[in-house]
Amino acid sequence: MNVLSNNNIKSETGINALKEVMDPEIGLNIVDLGLVYELNFDEENKTVNLLMTLTTQYCPMGESICNSAKNKLETAFEGYIANVELVFDPPWTFESLSEEGRRFLGRI
Predict the structure, then answer these.
(1) Minimal CA–CA distance to 18: which of 1, 6, 42, 34?
(2) If we measure between CA atoms, which residue out of 47, 13, 18 comes closest to residue 35?
(3) Most buried among 17, 22, 25, 94, using CB within 10 Å?
(4) How confident is the model at residue 1, as a pLDDT?
(5) What are the two backbone dihedrals, phi and then psi, of residue 93, each rounded to the nearest 5 degrees?
(6) H or E stretch covering 10
(7) Which domain holds residue 34?
(8) CB 40 within 8 A of CB 74
(9) What per-residue confidence (pLDDT) applies to 108?
(10) Does the residue 78 lie in any domain?
């Protein structure tokens, strides 16, 4: 899945930071799981806005994953505030996995 962004250069840094956020139940990062939909930057307000989902709306680790994503983005972009918005439409499916995620989970 491709991550949409209004700044492809900064997005690369953000995606690398988000690859450090693991889903502890699955053992795979949220980018390769396909949980990250958009990563946008507001230079005027110094915010980075993450639009993401979880594998299930009732994920018991959801709050922890979102907090970790926020912290990783704020570390990667010093002086910025990260906003994390969860959406469940479209819902996550196995088709959301990256090629690396498919290999990790034996889906290739």
Answers:
(1) 34
(2) 18
(3) 17
(4) 57
(5) -140, 170
(6) helix 8-18
(7) 4-82
(8) no
(9) 65
(10) yes
Residue 61: which CATH number? 3.30.300.130
- In the sheet with 36-42, reading across from the earlier edge strand, the strands are 4-5, 36-42, 47-52, 81-86
Crossing angle for the helix pair 62-76 and 8-18, nearest 10 degrees?
130
CA–CA dist 4, 51 (Å, integer) = 9
- Return d(Cα 33, Cα 25) in angstroms, integer: 12
Q: Which two tokens stand for residue 107?
A: 């889906």
CA distance 97 to 105: 9
- Is the confidence at residue 71, as pLDDT, over 70? yes
68-80 mean pLDDT: 98
What's the token pair of residue 44?
């005027």
Place of tokens 């690859």: 19
pLDDT tens digits for 21-59? Answer: 999 999 999 999 999 999 999 999 999 999 999 999 999
